[in-house]
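Propose amino acids for all 589 sites.
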C-alpha cells in the first residue's frame, strides 16, 4: 500500500472523530465561558476574580481526571491492538471505580474549604473571599459527574459512539445557560448560583452518556468481578506524564495569580481570567486534535504499526497546524468584540488588558499542537523522562519564569508573551531531543519521532498494500503469495495466504463498498513473524464481523458464505475488531 493511501484513510478517520472530541473538550470551556459571562455582567468584577482564583483548583481536578482517562484509554488502545478483550473490560471497570473514589475525596475537600473559610492560601481580599467560598460549595457537587462524564466520553469514542457524547454536550450547554439565568439573574444567588448551574448541568451531561452503558448494548461494561486493581499502577504510570503539564499548570496558575496581584492588581486577575476562560473554547480544538490522535497512536503502538504512527504526526503538521493557525488568526482579528462579551466600558483598564490577551495568547496555540502530540507519543511509547521534562518546562518553568522576568517592566502583557515564548521553547526541546538521539538533524518523520529501529516487523518482513477495486484484489493476492515465497514459506501456505486475502478483501469490495456512496479502500498488511504469516485487513466500511456471519450460517445452506467458512478452516487464528469505526480483521496462516 502506498503511504499516501493509508494516510488518506487515517486523515478521514481523524477528521470524522474530531468534531465530537472538540465538542467534548468544549463542554468544560462552555462552563467557564458561561460562568465568566454571568459573573462579569450580573455579579461584578469581584465574582470574576473568584472564578479566576478557582481556576488552578479546577486545573488540579482536571489533571487527575486526565491521568485516569489518559492512562486507561491508552491501555485499552494497546489491548485493542493486541485483541485482548478481557484486559479491556478490566481496565474499563477499574477506571470508573477510581474516578468515583477520587471524585469523592475532591468533593469533601471543596466542601470543607468553602464551609470553613479555608481559602486564605488563594486570596486575602476580604471582598472576594466570601464569593470564592460560596463558589467552591457549588462546584463541589459537580466533581463526580465531571470525572465520570470525561471517562464515558473517551470510552464512547473507542466504541464508535461519539454521537451520544455530541448529544450530551449540546444538552449540557442548553441546561447550563438556563440554570445560570435562573440561579444568577432571577434568584440572584451570585457566586453560588454560578457554580450550581455548571455542577447540575454536568450531572445531566454524565447521565445522558451513562444511559448507553446501563442499556446493556455497550461492548465495555462495568463489572466488580473484573476490576483489575493490579492495573492501577500502569494507569497512573502511563497517565501521569501526560497530565503532569496540567498539574504543573496548577502551580503555574497560583504563581501567575500572585504576580498579577502584586504588580497589576485584581483587575489583572480578572482580565486574565476573562481572556483565558473564553480561549478555553478555542483550546478545545487542539485538545480535540490530541484526543483523536491519542487513540490512533495507542492502537498503532499496540499493533506495532509504524506507518500509521508516522502518518498521524504528518497529518498533525500538514492539516492540524494550518487549521489551528487560521483559527488563531480569527481570534486575534476579533479581539475587541470578544472583550465586549465581558466588559462593555472600553475606558476601564480591565478592558484593554483583556483585549491584549485575545491578541497575544492565540499565537501560542499552533505551537501547543506540536507539543501536545509529541508529549502524547512520548507518553505512549515509554519516553517518560522526556515527557516529565517537557511537562516541567511547559507547565511551570517557562511561563512562570518569563512572567516573573518581564512583569516589572512590561506589566500585564508579560503573562501573555510568556505563553508564546513557552511554545517556542517546548518545540525546540523536542527538536533538540531528536537531534541528540540521532546525532544529526532529523531527516524524516521517523527520526523526528525517534522511533526505535526494532519497532514492528523489519521492513523486509512486512508488506503494505491498498485495494480500491475488484481488479486490485487479484493483483494483491498474487503479491501476497509472492511475498510469502520470497520469505521462504512453502508453496502451499503461500497459496492459502493469498487465497484467504483474496476471499476476505473481495468480500469487503463486493459488499462493503456498495453500502453507501462514499469512496472506500482496503488496507492490507502482510507480516512474516515467528514462522507465522499474519494478514491484517483494515477497511472503513460499515461494521462487519465475519465470525458472526459464519455463526449465523452454521446449519443453514451449505453453499452459503462458503468463502468465509473456508478462510476460518485455513487460518490458525481469526480475530475481528471494530476500532474507532474501522473494521480490523487479523488472520494467522
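Proposal:
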Amino acid at each position: 500500500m502506498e503511504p499516501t493511501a493509508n494516510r488518506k484513510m487515517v486523515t478521514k478517520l481523524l477528521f470524522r472523530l474530531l468534531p465530537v472530541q472538540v465538542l467534548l473538550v468544549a463542554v468544560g470551556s462552555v462552563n467557564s465561558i458561561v460562568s465568566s459571562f454571568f459573573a462579569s455582567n450580573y455579579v461584578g468584577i469581584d465574582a470574576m476574580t473568584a472564578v479566576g482564583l478557582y481556576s488552578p483548583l479546577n486545573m488540579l481536578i482536571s489533571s487527575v481526571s486526565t491521568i485516569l482517562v489518559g492512562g486507561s484509554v491508552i491501555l485499552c488502545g494497546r489491548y485493542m491492538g493486541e485483541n485482548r478483550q478481557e484486559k479491556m473490560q478490566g481496565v474499563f471497570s477499574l477506571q470508573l471505580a477510581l474516578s468515583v473514589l477520587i471524585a469523592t475525596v475532591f468533593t469533601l475537600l471543596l466542601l470543607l474549604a468553602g464551609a470553613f473559610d479555608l481559602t486564605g492560601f488563594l486570596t486575602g481580599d476580604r471582598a472576594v473571599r466570601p464569593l470564592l467560598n460560596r463558589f467552591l460549595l457549588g462546584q463541589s457537587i459537580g466533581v463526580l459527574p465531571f470525572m465520570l462524564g470525561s471517562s464515558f466520553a473517551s470510552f464512547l469514542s473507542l466504541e464508535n459512539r461519539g454521537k451520544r457524547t455530541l448529544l450530551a454536550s449540546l444538552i449540557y450547554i442548553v441546561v447550563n445557560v438556563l440554570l445560570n439565568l435562573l440561579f444568577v439573574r432571577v434568584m440572584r444567588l451570585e457566586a453560588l448560583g454560578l457554580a450550581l448551574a455548571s455542577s447540575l448541568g454536568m450531572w445531566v451531561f454524565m447521565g445522558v452518556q451513562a444511559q448507553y452503558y446501563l442499556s446493556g448494548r455497550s461492548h465495555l461494561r462495568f463489572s466488580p468481578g473484573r476490576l483489575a486493581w493490579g492495573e492501577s499502577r500502569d494507569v497512573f504510570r502511563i497517565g501521569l506524564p501526560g497530565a503532569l503539564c496540567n498539574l504543573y499548570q496548577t502551580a503555574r496558575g497560583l504563581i501567575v495569580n500572585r504576580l498579577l496581584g502584586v504588580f497589576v492588581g485584581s483587575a489583572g486577575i480578572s482580565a486574565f481570567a476573562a481572556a483565558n476562560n473564553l480561549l478555553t473554547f478555542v483550546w478545545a480544538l487542539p485538545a480535540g486534535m490530541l484526543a483523536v490522535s491519542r487513540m490512533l497512536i495507542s492502537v498503532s503502538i499496540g499493533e506495532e504499526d509504524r506507518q500509521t504512527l508516522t502518518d498521524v504526526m504528518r497529518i498533525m503538521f500538514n492539516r492540524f497546524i494550518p487549521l489551528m493557525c487560521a483559527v488563531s488568526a480569527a481570534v486575534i482579528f476579533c479581539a475587541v468584540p470578544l472583550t465586549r462579551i465581558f466588559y462593555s466600558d472600553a475606558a476601564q483598564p480591565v478592558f484593554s488588558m483583556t483585549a491584549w490577551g485575545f491578541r497575544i495568547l492565540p499565537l501560542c496555540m499552533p505551537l501547543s499542537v506540536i507539543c501536545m502530540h509529541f508529549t502524547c507519543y512520548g507518553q505512549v511509547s515509554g519516553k517518560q523522562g522526556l515527557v516529565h521534562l517537557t511537562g516541567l518546562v511547559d507547565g511551570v518553568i517557562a511561563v512562570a519564569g518569563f512572567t516573573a522576568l518581564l512583569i516589572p517592566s512590561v506589566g500585564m502583557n508579560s503573562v501573555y508573551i510568556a505563553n508564546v515564548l513557552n511554545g517556542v521553547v517546548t518545540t525546540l526541546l523536542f527538536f533538540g531531543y531528536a537531534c541528540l538521539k540521532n546525532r544529526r538533524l532529523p531527516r524524516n518523520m521517523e527520526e523526528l519521532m525517534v522511533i526505535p529501529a526494532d519497532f514492528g516487523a523489519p521492513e523486509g518482513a512486512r508488506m503494505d498494500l491498498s485495494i480500491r477495486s475488484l481488479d486490485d484484489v487479484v493483483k494483491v493476492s498474487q503479491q501476497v503469495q509472492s511475498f510469502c515465497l520470497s520469505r521462504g514459506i512453502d508453496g502451499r501456505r503461500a497459496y492459502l495466504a493469498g487465497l484467504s486475502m483474496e476471499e476476505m478483501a473481495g468480500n469487503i469490495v463486493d459488499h462493503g463498498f456498495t453500502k453507501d456512496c462514499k469512496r472506500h479502500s482496503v488496507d492490507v498488511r502482510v507480516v512474516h513473524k515467528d514462522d507465522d504469516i499474519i494478514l491484517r485487513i483494515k477497511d472503513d466500511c460499515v461494521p462487519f464481523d465475519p465470525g458472526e456471519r459464519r455463526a449465523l450460517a452454521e446449519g443453514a445452506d451449505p453453499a452459503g458464505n462458503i468463502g468465509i467458512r473456508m478462510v476460518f478452516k485455513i487460518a490458525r487464528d481469526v480475530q475481528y475488531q471494530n476500532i474507532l469505526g474501522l473494521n480490523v480483521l487479523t488472520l494467522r496462516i
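The mean pLDDT is 85. Residues 3-43 form the longest helix (41 residues).
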